[in-house]
Amino acid sequence: MMLHYYEKEDQVLLAVDCIIFGFDGKKLKLLLVKRNFEPEKDKWSLIGGFLKKNENLDEAAARVLKALTGLKEVYLEQLHTYSNVNRDSGQRTVSVAYYALIDIASHQFEGILLDTAKWFDVKLIPDLIFDHNQMVDGAIRRLRRRAQTKPIGFELLPNKFTMKQLQLLYESILDKKLDKRNFTNKINTLDVLEKLNEKDMTESKKGSFLFKFDQIKYSNKVKEGFSFKI
Amino acid sequence: MMLHYYEKEDQVLLAVDCIIFGFDGKKLKLLLVKRNFEPEKDKWSLIGGFLKKNENLDEAAARVLKALTGLKEVYLEQLHTYSNVNRDSGQRTVSVAYYALIDIASHQFEGILLDTAKWFDVKLIPDLIFDHNQMVDGAIRRLRRRAQTKPIGFELLPNKFTMKQLQLLYESILDKKLDKRNFTNKINTLDVLEKLNEKDMTESKKGSFLFKFDQIKYSNKVKEGFSFKI
DNA sequence: AATATTAAGTGTAAAAAACACACTTCTAAA
DNA sequence: TTTAGAAGTGTGTTTTTTACACTTAATATT
Hints:
Nucleoside Triphosphate Pyrophosphohydrolase, Arc Repressor Mutant, subunit A, homodimer, seven-stranded mixed β-sheet, 10 strands, 2 domains, DNA-binding, 27% helix, alpha+beta
């Protein structure tokens, strides 16, 4: 039996909640579920779950995400821990928020509970339970900052993408129009994409070239002091 | 009596640990304490404590900081939550790290336990208990980023300071030499300091003018879209 | 009273980065 | 063969960043 060195203190329930961002090729979206238990049954909510004794928070977040969407190997980053005493009307719960980035187009959702889940435009988020709107706001701000200094945007795109899609993605994240020529020039200057001999023909007669993010090239450049900046 | 909706879930001990930064006019320092209980008794450690039922994490961090240093109204910011299953060799504990910024010179430490506490140069941090070195590394990186986009550096300085002190502070935080003229020009361009009709005579015969951070001017500029950038 | 000492204070030119801006090219469909 | 529509591309201007060294002010020394 384990010794308890610390005097008995109050224990708390520790939850994880996931802000799941997706990009459908046009707009940045957020996956929300209709909560099917009390309290706050039938209100929209982030997906969440509780930390178990044998896992850390990163693992708990990945487990919760997989359980509810079927997705694994998804980009997940811890955001902030929310702890107001009455934040959960059920009982004292502290929640660690994570945000996830997934590419909507290339994932088939196994949709275990996708009857109760829905993608919302990030600019049209409904009222959520507890402090979940605050978590979403924090996640959007974090994503905005992070996407400008780390190549995490590619997590939201298919493996192969056009320059137009990449620009639309950044426009969605930063919530502002970007100039096509300046954007292309900047991306080309970064020199971390591989241009494929392959075109996407769905959007124009001419077709537009597809690109891939070159993770190896990026890592090597980082080792030599390069820093990604959009 | 409160209903327990989630009662089958595991509970955990939730700790806060504080990374306390100070600036002595020359170098950036960190306050560490020698731990006086098991496990890991007599090793250097961050100060910490446990979350209580009637407070949130920000309050817990402030309480812990005040209990151990006597300081209140200190800049505190949540950093990250650490949760590896065996991070604490005593029992399963999840810890939320906070970092604090204090001005060493102008605070008289009541020093309740300052016999067991010591300021360390941030570049010479000893081996700490558990994952505290990881927390410190995270805090330094966060401070470095934050100090470039928010005027939090002033939290580490006395109310009145010279341009030289401000420059030395940024050099410590960013861990690189800055050019005096470029630095002065940049700070003047930001236009958020008030230049006092008062000099610090301790460092030179000529004396150097003292400045104050003008919080009101800064807030007004932020409202008009200004963003602080060093 | 003159001189020496020491940090404080100050400006400009060059390079790099950010920005504004519009026409040509390619291909499929008509 | 013509048309239609998105893809693709370059330059000049402005702003920001960087590199760089002498003068000034006040005290201390002679």
